[in-house]
Amino acid sequence: MVLRIVLGAVYTAMAVGQLASFGHMPGILAAYGLVDGAAATALAVALIAGELVCGVWFLARPRSKTLAPVWVYTAVAVMWSLLAVQAYARGLTVTNCGCFGLYLSQRLSWFVLTQDALTLLYAGLLLHGARKAPAAPAQRAVPSRGTEQDETAAPVQSPPGIEEADPDARIR
């Protein structure tokens, strides 16, 4: 739960910073050498939307067992990591990684690659935790009074020490 809150705060802050500098985001993403023009704008929109969705969800519902925000987080982390790794491997100079738009800028370096690797590690932890989460227990149908029961079924008894309430007693 703490990991979701921290990641939610970071991703929401990233989205806010990128939204505040949205006009510059296509240029920042173009520096990675994979996209430019309309494709860079579309990528910026997709990254910001993904960051907002999972960031706000993690903050608003940190105990949620829903997989959708975990998969969105994973997709965003993979995209940022792919952008960074391929640009670093090609020796491109990226003066602003763009994680927070124009704010808190960092040049692309091993430190940014380490941060991206950590986001992938966190994605793995979130996915692993979601897979291990116990399923909600199935509720057993209990026949109501007056319905026929299978004669071979054992009668349902209350645990010892618990008295059953009088079914005919009503609050007046």
Describe the model:
With 172 residues, the protein is mainly α. It is 54% helix and 0% strand. The protein has helices at residues 2-20, 25-30, 38-60, 68-89, 110-132. Helix 1 (2-20) runs antiparallel to helix 3 and helix 4 (68-89) runs antiparallel to helix 5 (110-132). The radius of gyration is 26 Å and the shape is globular.
Task: Give a summary of the structure in a few sentences.
The protein has 172 residues and is mainly alpha-helical.
Please render the helix and strand layout as text:
Layout: H1 2-20, H2 25-30, H3 38-60, H4 68-89, H5 110-132
Features:
mainly alpha; 172 residues; single chain; 5 helices
**What is the H/E string?**
HHHHH
Q: What is the distance, rounded to the nearest whole angstrom, between the alpha carbons of the first and last residues?
A: 44 Å
Globular, elongated, flat, extended or rod-shaped: what is the shape?
globular
Number of helices: 5
Q: Give the percentage of residues in beta strands.
A: under 5%
Low-confidence stretches are none
Radius of gyration: 26 Å
Helix content: 40-55%
- The counted number of beta strands is 0
Average per-residue pLDDT, rounded, comes to 85
